[in-house]
Amino acid sequence: MPKYKLFLEQSKFESKIINESKLESCEISKKNKTWTLNIKLKEVVSVADLKPFLTNLKSYFLLPGVVSKVEVKLTFDKLKRLNDYARDYFEYICREVAEEKSRFLAFLSFKFDYTDEKYTIHLDRDSEYLMDSVPELKDKFHEYGLKVDVEAVVDEEIKTTIESIKENIQTQQELSNEQARLHEQRQKIEKKKIFDRRRSKPTSVSISQIPINQYKLHQYMNEVGDTRFVVEGEVIMSEVRKLRTATLLQMTIADADDAIVVKRFLNTETQIFEAESIKEGDFVQVEGNAQYDEYLKDMTIMASTITFTENLAKVERMDRAKE
Questions:
Q1: Which of 39, 78, 144, 146 has the smallest C-beta neighbourhood within 10 Å, fewest atoms?
Q2: What SS3 state is found at 247?
Q3: d(Cα 121, Cα 219) in Å, to the nearest integer?
Q4: 281-290 pLDDT, tens digit each
Q5: Fold of the 82-154 domain
Protein backbone atom coordinates (compact mmCIF):
# COMPACT_ATOMS: atom_id res chain seq x y z
CA MET A 1 0.00 0.00 0.00
CA PRO A 2 1.48 3.40 -0.97
CA LYS A 3 2.72 5.30 2.06
CA TYR A 4 0.57 8.40 1.38
CA LYS A 5 -2.62 6.33 1.18
CA LEU A 6 -1.64 4.59 4.40
CA PHE A 7 -1.09 8.01 5.99
CA LEU A 8 -4.64 9.10 5.08
CA GLU A 9 -6.21 5.89 6.38
CA GLN A 10 -4.34 6.09 9.67
CA SER A 11 -5.01 9.80 10.19
CA LYS A 12 -8.78 9.59 9.53
CA PHE A 13 -9.29 13.27 8.76
CA GLU A 14 -12.81 14.68 9.00
CA SER A 15 -12.58 16.36 5.60
CA LYS A 16 -13.71 14.12 2.75
CA ILE A 17 -11.77 16.30 0.30
CA ILE A 18 -8.52 15.67 2.19
CA ASN A 19 -9.21 11.95 2.47
CA GLU A 20 -9.65 11.83 -1.32
CA SER A 21 -6.51 13.89 -2.04
CA LYS A 22 -3.71 12.42 -4.12
CA LEU A 23 0.07 12.51 -3.99
CA GLU A 24 0.97 13.55 -7.55
CA SER A 25 4.74 13.37 -7.14
CA CYS A 26 7.60 13.59 -4.67
CA GLU A 27 10.70 15.68 -5.37
CA ILE A 28 13.76 14.48 -3.47
CA SER A 29 16.87 16.48 -2.67
CA LYS A 30 19.48 14.11 -1.25
CA LYS A 31 21.87 16.97 -0.67
CA ASN A 32 19.45 18.87 1.58
CA LYS A 33 17.66 15.72 2.76
CA THR A 34 14.40 17.37 1.72
CA TRP A 35 11.26 15.85 0.25
CA THR A 36 8.74 18.04 -1.53
CA LEU A 37 5.30 16.44 -1.72
CA ASN A 38 2.99 17.64 -4.48
CA ILE A 39 -0.56 17.08 -3.25
CA LYS A 40 -3.68 17.57 -5.34
CA LEU A 41 -7.13 18.25 -3.86
CA LYS A 42 -10.44 18.56 -5.66
CA GLU A 43 -11.55 21.71 -3.82
CA VAL A 44 -10.36 24.23 -1.25
CA VAL A 45 -10.81 23.08 2.34
CA SER A 46 -11.12 25.20 5.46
CA VAL A 47 -7.99 26.44 7.21
CA ALA A 48 -9.14 24.52 10.28
CA ASP A 49 -8.94 21.29 8.25
CA LEU A 50 -5.80 22.21 6.32
CA LYS A 51 -3.50 23.04 9.25
CA PRO A 52 -3.62 19.65 11.04
CA PHE A 53 -3.36 17.91 7.67
CA LEU A 54 -0.11 19.71 6.81
CA THR A 55 1.34 19.30 10.30
CA ASN A 56 0.68 15.56 10.43
CA LEU A 57 1.83 15.06 6.84
CA LYS A 58 5.22 16.69 7.40
CA SER A 59 5.74 14.77 10.61
CA TYR A 60 4.72 11.43 9.06
CA PHE A 61 7.26 11.55 6.23
CA LEU A 62 10.27 12.59 8.31
CA LEU A 63 12.95 9.88 8.51
CA PRO A 64 15.87 10.47 10.89
CA GLY A 65 19.12 10.60 8.93
CA VAL A 66 17.27 10.33 5.60
CA VAL A 67 14.59 13.05 5.44
CA SER A 68 15.26 16.10 7.61
CA LYS A 69 12.63 18.38 6.08
CA VAL A 70 9.30 17.86 4.34
CA GLU A 71 7.75 20.57 2.19
CA VAL A 72 4.25 20.46 0.72
CA LYS A 73 2.97 22.04 -2.47
CA LEU A 74 -0.77 22.03 -2.98
CA THR A 75 -2.91 22.30 -6.09
CA PHE A 76 -6.70 22.53 -6.28
CA ASP A 77 -8.97 21.55 -9.14
CA LYS A 78 -11.39 24.31 -8.11
CA LEU A 79 -11.08 27.53 -6.10
CA LYS A 80 -14.81 28.23 -5.81
CA ARG A 81 -14.96 27.40 -2.10
CA LEU A 82 -12.28 29.99 -1.40
CA ASN A 83 -15.14 32.52 -1.39
CA ASP A 84 -16.23 30.95 1.91
CA TYR A 85 -12.74 30.92 3.43
CA ALA A 86 -11.25 34.11 1.95
CA ARG A 87 -10.69 35.86 5.28
CA ASP A 88 -9.33 32.76 7.04
CA TYR A 89 -6.79 32.12 4.29
CA PHE A 90 -5.76 35.77 4.11
CA GLU A 91 -4.99 35.82 7.84
CA TYR A 92 -3.34 32.40 7.69
CA ILE A 93 -1.03 33.27 4.79
CA CYS A 94 -0.08 36.64 6.32
CA ARG A 95 0.85 34.98 9.60
CA GLU A 96 2.84 32.27 7.83
CA VAL A 97 4.97 34.86 6.00
CA ALA A 98 5.24 36.96 9.17
CA GLU A 99 7.07 34.15 10.96
CA GLU A 100 10.14 35.24 8.99
CA LYS A 101 9.16 38.81 8.11
CA SER A 102 7.03 40.44 10.79
CA ARG A 103 6.05 43.42 8.63
CA PHE A 104 3.47 41.21 6.91
CA LEU A 105 1.37 41.35 10.08
CA ALA A 106 0.58 44.95 9.11
CA PHE A 107 -1.68 43.66 6.34
CA LEU A 108 -4.02 42.26 9.00
CA SER A 109 -4.89 45.83 10.04
CA PHE A 110 -6.56 46.64 6.73
CA LYS A 111 -9.77 45.67 5.04
CA PHE A 112 -9.72 43.71 1.82
CA ASP A 113 -12.11 42.54 -0.88
CA TYR A 114 -12.08 39.12 -2.50
CA THR A 115 -13.88 38.78 -5.81
CA ASP A 116 -13.17 36.82 -9.00
CA GLU A 117 -10.14 35.09 -7.45
CA LYS A 118 -8.52 38.41 -6.56
CA TYR A 119 -7.61 39.97 -3.21
CA THR A 120 -7.66 43.78 -3.10
CA ILE A 121 -6.15 45.25 0.08
CA HIS A 122 -7.13 48.82 1.00
CA LEU A 123 -4.21 50.73 2.54
CA ASP A 124 -4.11 54.18 4.11
CA ARG A 125 -1.79 56.92 2.82
CA ASP A 126 0.90 56.24 5.42
CA SER A 127 1.07 52.52 4.58
CA GLU A 128 1.81 52.81 0.89
CA TYR A 129 5.24 51.27 1.56
CA LEU A 130 3.52 47.88 2.01
CA MET A 131 2.86 47.72 -1.71
CA ASP A 132 6.42 46.48 -2.20
CA SER A 133 5.55 43.39 -0.15
CA VAL A 134 2.44 42.45 -2.13
CA PRO A 135 4.26 40.28 -4.75
CA GLU A 136 5.81 38.18 -1.98
CA LEU A 137 2.41 37.77 -0.34
CA LYS A 138 0.99 36.68 -3.70
CA ASP A 139 3.77 34.09 -4.12
CA LYS A 140 2.91 32.64 -0.72
CA PHE A 141 -0.71 32.18 -1.78
CA HIS A 142 0.53 30.35 -4.87
CA GLU A 143 2.73 28.07 -2.75
CA TYR A 144 -0.43 26.90 -1.05
CA GLY A 145 -2.02 26.18 -4.42
CA LEU A 146 -4.20 29.28 -4.33
CA LYS A 147 -3.61 30.78 -7.77
CA VAL A 148 -5.17 34.12 -6.97
CA ASP A 149 -4.17 37.66 -7.77
CA VAL A 150 -3.23 40.02 -4.92
CA GLU A 151 -3.02 43.79 -5.18
CA ALA A 152 -3.02 46.76 -2.81
CA VAL A 153 -4.59 50.17 -3.38
CA VAL A 154 -4.35 53.40 -1.40
CA ASP A 155 -7.76 54.49 -0.17
CA GLU A 156 -7.75 58.22 0.60
CA GLU A 157 -10.88 57.84 2.73
CA ILE A 158 -9.14 55.55 5.23
CA LYS A 159 -7.76 57.35 8.25
CA THR A 160 -4.02 57.09 8.71
CA THR A 161 -2.52 55.52 11.80
CA ILE A 162 -1.64 58.94 13.21
CA GLU A 163 -5.16 60.22 12.57
CA SER A 164 -6.62 57.13 14.23
CA ILE A 165 -4.33 57.58 17.24
CA LYS A 166 -5.36 61.22 17.62
CA GLU A 167 -9.01 60.27 17.33
CA ASN A 168 -8.52 57.47 19.84
CA ILE A 169 -6.84 59.87 22.28
CA GLN A 170 -9.78 62.25 21.95
CA THR A 171 -12.24 59.40 22.43
CA GLN A 172 -10.33 58.19 25.48
CA GLN A 173 -10.37 61.72 26.91
CA GLU A 174 -14.11 61.99 26.36
CA LEU A 175 -14.57 58.57 27.94
CA SER A 176 -12.39 59.59 30.88
CA ASN A 177 -14.44 62.75 31.38
CA GLU A 178 -17.66 60.74 31.24
CA GLN A 179 -16.29 58.23 33.75
CA ALA A 180 -15.30 61.08 36.06
CA ARG A 181 -18.81 62.52 35.78
CA LEU A 182 -20.38 59.13 36.53
CA HIS A 183 -17.98 58.61 39.44
CA GLU A 184 -19.00 61.96 40.90
CA GLN A 185 -22.65 61.04 40.42
CA ARG A 186 -22.11 57.65 42.09
CA GLN A 187 -20.45 59.36 45.03
CA LYS A 188 -23.51 61.53 45.42
CA ILE A 189 -25.72 58.47 45.34
CA GLU A 190 -23.49 56.66 47.82
CA LYS A 191 -23.87 59.58 50.17
CA LYS A 192 -27.57 59.33 49.35
CA LYS A 193 -28.61 62.73 50.52
CA ILE A 194 -31.06 65.26 49.13
CA PHE A 195 -29.88 68.71 50.16
CA ASP A 196 -31.98 71.75 51.01
CA ARG A 197 -31.38 74.80 53.14
CA ARG A 198 -32.63 74.51 56.72
CA ARG A 199 -34.78 77.42 57.83
CA SER A 200 -34.60 76.58 61.55
CA LYS A 201 -32.95 74.13 63.88
CA PRO A 202 -35.20 71.05 64.09
CA THR A 203 -35.84 68.87 67.10
CA SER A 204 -34.66 65.26 66.91
CA VAL A 205 -37.41 62.92 68.10
CA SER A 206 -38.77 59.41 67.72
CA ILE A 207 -41.75 59.17 65.38
CA SER A 208 -44.12 58.59 68.30
CA GLN A 209 -43.28 62.06 69.67
CA ILE A 210 -44.71 63.86 66.64
CA PRO A 211 -48.21 65.25 67.41
CA ILE A 212 -50.85 62.76 66.33
CA ASN A 213 -53.46 65.23 65.02
CA GLN A 214 -53.89 68.78 63.80
CA TYR A 215 -55.04 70.13 67.18
CA LYS A 216 -51.96 68.85 69.01
CA LEU A 217 -49.76 70.08 66.17
CA HIS A 218 -51.12 73.62 66.70
CA GLN A 219 -50.41 73.30 70.42
CA TYR A 220 -46.85 72.20 69.68
CA MET A 221 -46.42 75.12 67.27
CA ASN A 222 -47.58 77.62 69.92
CA GLU A 223 -45.27 76.15 72.56
CA VAL A 224 -42.13 75.58 70.48
CA GLY A 225 -42.61 77.99 67.59
CA ASP A 226 -41.63 75.39 65.00
CA THR A 227 -43.04 72.18 63.51
CA ARG A 228 -39.81 70.91 62.00
CA PHE A 229 -38.61 67.49 63.10
CA VAL A 230 -35.81 65.05 62.44
CA VAL A 231 -36.81 61.38 62.57
CA GLU A 232 -35.05 58.17 61.64
CA GLY A 233 -36.49 54.91 60.43
CA GLU A 234 -36.50 52.01 58.01
CA VAL A 235 -38.19 52.48 54.65
CA ILE A 236 -41.28 50.27 54.53
CA MET A 237 -42.60 51.55 51.21
CA SER A 238 -41.39 54.11 48.67
CA GLU A 239 -42.67 55.34 45.32
CA VAL A 240 -42.14 58.27 42.97
CA ARG A 241 -45.39 59.55 41.50
CA LYS A 242 -45.60 61.53 38.26
CA LEU A 243 -48.38 64.03 38.87
CA ARG A 244 -49.87 66.30 36.24
CA THR A 245 -47.73 69.31 37.16
CA ALA A 246 -45.16 67.87 39.56
CA THR A 247 -43.29 64.78 40.72
CA LEU A 248 -43.86 63.52 44.26
CA LEU A 249 -41.87 61.16 46.44
CA GLN A 250 -44.02 59.37 49.01
CA MET A 251 -42.65 56.80 51.41
CA THR A 252 -43.45 55.26 54.76
CA ILE A 253 -40.72 54.92 57.39
CA ALA A 254 -40.86 53.15 60.75
CA ASP A 255 -38.73 53.19 63.88
CA ALA A 256 -38.97 50.96 66.95
CA ASP A 257 -42.17 52.68 68.17
CA ASP A 258 -44.20 54.04 65.26
CA ALA A 259 -44.42 54.80 61.54
CA ILE A 260 -45.14 57.90 59.45
CA VAL A 261 -45.68 58.89 55.83
CA VAL A 262 -43.01 61.17 54.34
CA LYS A 263 -43.61 63.28 51.23
CA ARG A 264 -41.36 65.47 49.13
CA PHE A 265 -41.87 67.31 45.85
CA LEU A 266 -39.01 66.71 43.42
CA ASN A 267 -37.98 69.73 41.39
CA THR A 268 -34.92 68.55 39.43
CA GLU A 269 -33.81 65.49 37.49
CA THR A 270 -31.11 64.89 40.11
CA GLN A 271 -33.69 64.83 42.91
CA ILE A 272 -35.86 62.42 40.91
CA PHE A 273 -32.84 60.20 40.23
CA GLU A 274 -31.90 60.15 43.92
CA ALA A 275 -35.48 59.53 45.03
CA GLU A 276 -35.81 56.57 42.67
CA SER A 277 -32.75 55.02 44.34
CA ILE A 278 -34.67 54.68 47.61
CA LYS A 279 -35.80 51.12 48.20
CA GLU A 280 -37.52 49.08 50.87
CA GLY A 281 -35.16 48.23 53.71
CA ASP A 282 -33.06 51.40 53.45
CA PHE A 283 -32.52 53.28 56.71
CA VAL A 284 -33.04 57.03 56.44
CA GLN A 285 -33.02 60.23 58.43
CA VAL A 286 -35.73 62.70 57.44
CA GLU A 287 -35.94 66.39 58.23
CA GLY A 288 -39.02 68.44 57.47
CA ASN A 289 -42.27 70.04 58.62
CA ALA A 290 -44.93 67.93 60.26
CA GLN A 291 -48.38 68.57 58.81
CA TYR A 292 -51.79 66.97 58.84
CA ASP A 293 -52.75 65.38 55.51
CA GLU A 294 -56.47 65.78 54.83
CA TYR A 295 -56.42 63.07 52.16
CA LEU A 296 -54.66 60.47 54.31
CA LYS A 297 -56.37 61.69 57.49
CA ASP A 298 -53.06 61.31 59.27
CA MET A 299 -49.94 63.20 60.26
CA THR A 300 -47.16 63.34 57.66
CA ILE A 301 -43.77 64.98 57.22
CA MET A 302 -43.12 67.21 54.21
CA ALA A 303 -39.39 66.54 53.90
CA SER A 304 -36.76 69.09 52.98
CA THR A 305 -33.82 66.75 53.53
CA ILE A 306 -33.60 62.97 53.28
CA THR A 307 -30.33 61.35 54.28
CA PHE A 308 -29.50 57.67 53.85
CA THR A 309 -27.62 56.38 56.89
CA GLU A 310 -25.29 53.40 57.15
CA ASN A 311 -26.63 49.96 58.04
CA LEU A 312 -24.62 50.11 61.26
CA ALA A 313 -26.85 52.90 62.51
CA LYS A 314 -29.85 50.68 61.89
CA VAL A 315 -28.36 47.81 63.88
CA GLU A 316 -27.44 50.05 66.80
CA ARG A 317 -30.95 51.51 66.89
CA MET A 318 -32.52 48.06 66.88
CA ASP A 319 -30.23 46.98 69.72
CA ARG A 320 -31.25 49.98 71.80
CA ALA A 321 -34.91 49.21 71.10
CA LYS A 322 -34.46 45.69 72.50
CA GLU A 323 -33.02 47.13 75.70
A1: 78
A2: strand
A3: 88
A4: 888 899 999 9
A5: GMP Synthetase; Chain A, domain 3 (3.30.300)
